[in-house]
C-alpha cells in the first residue's frame, strides 16, 4: 500500500539534493584552502586529519554490508572496500591519500600512527562509523549521499592544490584525479537505493535526517581543524 503522505521520487530527490547547502564545501577552512591561504603546516594538518576520516570508510562500508539483507546491494557495495583498501596490483584511495601526505612532506608513519589527529575529528568520524553500525542499512546509505556533492569539491580542490601549493609533488594528486569519477558512480548508485527503498514518508524523513547528520559530521571535522588553526585550540 502506498503512503499518501510520501513525497514523489522527484520531490524526495530534490529534498536530498537540497542538503548541498549544508555541505562542507562552504566551510571557511575549505574556502581558505581553495584560495591558497593555508600555510604549509595547516595544509599538512588537514591532510593528516582527513586521513582519519578516510581510513574508517571501508569499515563503515563493511558495517552497511553486514546489516544489509539484499545480495544485489551487497555485491555492488562491496566494491567500495577495494576502492579504498586497494586490490592486487591496484592501489586504492588509502595508498593514494598517503601519497598526498608524503608529497606534502609528511611521513607515512606520522600519518598512520594518528599523532596529529585532533579529538574533534576523531569524535565526528567515530560518530559516523557508529551510525553505520547501529542504524538501518538504508539510513547509512543515505548518509553516504554527501558524495553527490563531493566531485565538484574535489575538482576545485585539485585545481587549488596545483595552483596555490606548487610545492606538493604531482605524485600527490592521484587521489583527487581518480576519486571524482568513482564518487559520481557511487553516489548515483546510493541515490537509486535510497529513492527505491525509502517509500514511506517516515522512511524518507529518516533518510533526510541521516544525510543532515552526515553534513554535520563533515562540518565538525573542519570546525575542529579551524579551531586549531586559529590558535584557539590550545
Ligand atoms: O574529499 C572530500 O571532500 C570527500 C568527501 C566525501 C563526502 O562527502 O562524504 C567523501 C570523500 N571525499 C571520499 O573520498 C570518499 O571516499 C567518501 C566516501 C564517503 C561515504 O560517506 O561513504 N564519503 C566520501
Automatic annotation (TrEMBL):
It catalyses: 6-(2-amino-2-carboxyethyl)-7,8-dioxo-1,2,3,4,7,8-hexahydroquinoline-2,4-dicarboxylate + 3 O2 = pyrroloquinoline quinone + 2 H2O2 + 2 H2O + H(+). It comes from Streptomyces ehimensis. Gene3D superfamilies: Heme oxygenase-like (1.20.910.10). InterPro entries: Haem_Oase-like_multi-hlx (IPR016084), PqqC (IPR011845), PqqC-like (IPR039068), Thiaminase-2/PQQC (IPR004305). It comes from the Bacteria. Its EC number is 1.3.3.11. Pathway: Cofactor biosynthesis; pyrroloquinoline quinone biosynthesis; Cofactor biosynthesis; thiamine diphosphate biosynthesis. The lineage of its organism: Bacteria, Bacillati, Actinomycetota, Actinomycetes, Kitasatosporales. One of its GO terms (molecular function) is pyrroloquinoline-quinone synthase activity. Signal peptide: none annotated. PANTHER family: 4-AMINOBENZOATE SYNTHASE, PQQC-LIKE PROTEIN. Belongs to the PqqC family. It holds the Pfam family TENA_THI-4. NCBIfam families: PQQ_syn_pqqC. HAMAP family: PQQ_syn_PqqC. This is Pyrroloquinoline-quinone synthase. It is an enzyme of class 1 (oxidoreductase). Residues 14-223 form the Thiaminase-2/PQQC domain. Keywords: Oxidoreductase, PQQ biosynthesis.
